[in-house]
Design brief:
Helices cover 20% and strands 35% of the residues. The chain has 250 residues and is an alpha+beta fold. The strands form 5 sheets. The protein has a 5-stranded mixed sheet. A 4-stranded antiparallel sheet has the order 10-11-12-15, with no helix packed on it.
Length: 250
C-alpha cells in the first residue's frame, strides 16, 4: 500500500510540474507576439509610404502606349532628364543608351551605330543606318541632327532594324525626338552652363497663347566657346576648336 501511495504521489507531482511548464507556453501562443506586431506595423508603414512607379508613355508604334507593352527593344528619357544629365546633342545619348555610339569624322559629321550596326560613310550626304527623326519627320543626313535635341518632351531610341514606320528604312535603329508643344498658359524657362575655354551654353523657351485658339512656343539655344588648340611655329596665331552654334525653333 505504501508503494502504491508513493507512486500516486509521484504521478500527481509530475502532473503538477507539467501543468506549470505548459501553462505559460500555452498563454504565450494564444496571441501574436510583440515582434510579429512590430513587423506588421513596419510593413504597413512601408506600404503607405511607398512611391508610385512613373508610367513611361511612348509613340514608337505611332500610338501612345505604355513602354512595357511595346514589343521591341526601346529606351526613352524625358526632356527634364536630358537637361539634368547635360545631354544637348545626339552624340550625348551615349551617356544613357547602351549600345549607341557616335563617331565623329574628318568632315565634321557623325556616324551613328547601335549594337555595332552602322555605315562608315564620311560624306555629308551619306545615308546613315541609324535614322534620326524630329516629331516623326526624318532627318536623312547626320549633319541635320545638330540641334535636334532642342526643347524636348522626350526622346525614344529603338534598337534593331526598323521599317518605314516613320518614312525611312533603318537597319541599325531609330532615334525619335519629340519636341515640347505650345501651352494654353504662359510659360517660360532658361537653362545655362559655363565650362572650360569659356564654353557658354544657354537655352530657353517661351510658350503661351497669342490669340484666341492659337498657341505659340519659341525655343532657342546658343553655344559658344574659345579655341582649345593653338598653333605655333609656322601656324603661330592660328586657333582651332572653338564653338559658335545658334539654334531655334518656332
Amino acid at each position: 500500500m505504501k508503494t502504491v501511495r508513493r507512486s500516486l504521489a509521484l504521478c500527481g507531482a509530475s502532473s503538477l510540474v507539467l501543468g506549470l511548464l505548459t501553462g505559460p507556453a500555452w498563454a504565450a501562443d494564444s496571441g501574436p507576439s510583440a515582434a510579429a506586431t512590430a513587423a506588421a506595423t513596419a510593413d504597413a508603414a512601408a506600404t503607405s509610404g511607398a512611391t508610385t512607379v512613373e508610367t513611361i508613355v511612348v509613340t514608337a508604334q505611332k500610338r501612345e502606349e505604355n513602354i512595357n507593352n511595346v514589343g521591341m527593344s526601346i529606351q526613352a528619357a524625358s526632356g527634364a532628364k536630358l537637361l539634368e544629365l547635360g545631354i544637348h546633342d545626339t552624340t550625348d545619348l551615349q551617356k544613357i543608351v547602351p549600345g549607341f555610339q557616335a563617331t565623329p569624322t574628318y568632315y565634321g559629321t557623325n556616324v551613328y551605330t547601335i549594337r555595332g550596326v552602322g555605315f562608315q560613310d564620311t560624306s555629308l550626304a551619306g545615308s546613315p543606318t541609324v535614322s534620326v527623326y524630329s516629331d516623326e519627320f526624318p532627318l536623312p543626313f547626320s549633319v541635320l541632327t545638330n540641334g535636334a535635341s532642342l526643347d524636348l518632351q522626350r526622346v525614344e531610341v529603338l534598337k534593331g532594324p526598323q521599317g518605314t514606320l516613320f518614312g525611312e528604312n533603318a537597319t541599325g535603329g531609330a532615334i525619335n525626338y519629340i519636341a515640347n508643344k505650345p501651352t494654353d498658359t504662359f510659360e517660360a524657362g532658361v537653362d545655362g552652363s559655363f565650362g572650360r575655354f569659356d564654353d557658354t551654353d544657354l537655352e530657353g523657351f517661351v510658350s503661351g497663347p497669342v490669340a484666341n485658339g492659337l498657341d505659340v512656343r519659341l525655343a532657342a539655344r546658343i553655344n559658344e566657346s574659345g579655341a582649345w588648340q593653338k598653333g605655333y611655329a609656322q601656324q603661330d596665331g592660328q586657333t582651332i576648336g572653338g564653338k559658335d552654334f545658334i539654334n531655334g525653333r518656332l
